[in-house]
Amino acid sequence: MHAIAGFRSQDLVILEDEFKAASSKFVLMTDDGTAGKKGLVTDALKELIERGEKYDEVITIGPLIMMKFVCALTKQYGIKTVASMNPIMIDGTGMCGCCRLTVGGKTVFACVDGPDFDGHQIDFDEAMARGDMYKSFETKKREEVCNLFKKEVQ
Ligand code: FES
Fold first, then answer.
1. Which ligand 1 atom is at minimum distance from the Cα of 95?
2. In which domain, by residue range, is 125 found?
């Protein structure tokens, strides 16, 4: 089993020893190149595939944008890919509705019907749009809190 893990920078790297222990090949990637190789997990995956590694299946877990591009890449090479939609789950009981997504044209809930789905069937754009639905509200609230904090400090 090969593992590729990506982080923004060295100070955010976690479980490196565990990844190494659990895989026959481990590739560490960072956005800024402060640990491992500089680049994205998709860069590493593409390099391995083009170097001749054969994969029966790819499992992707992480931010939606990363999973979207991993799935787009593996689709090009015809590699079965499972994406874990845990990142969009909130209560995990089927009650909140936050994990609703479209897979293969059908509406499903990550916590009840998944969380693992055929990555090539997931509508990642819709899932990401749903995640951004309250972005302006969240930004406004964060700024309000920050402004209050600034007043308390003064
Ligand atoms: S996480 Fe709330 S319905 Fe699935």
1. 3
2. 2-153
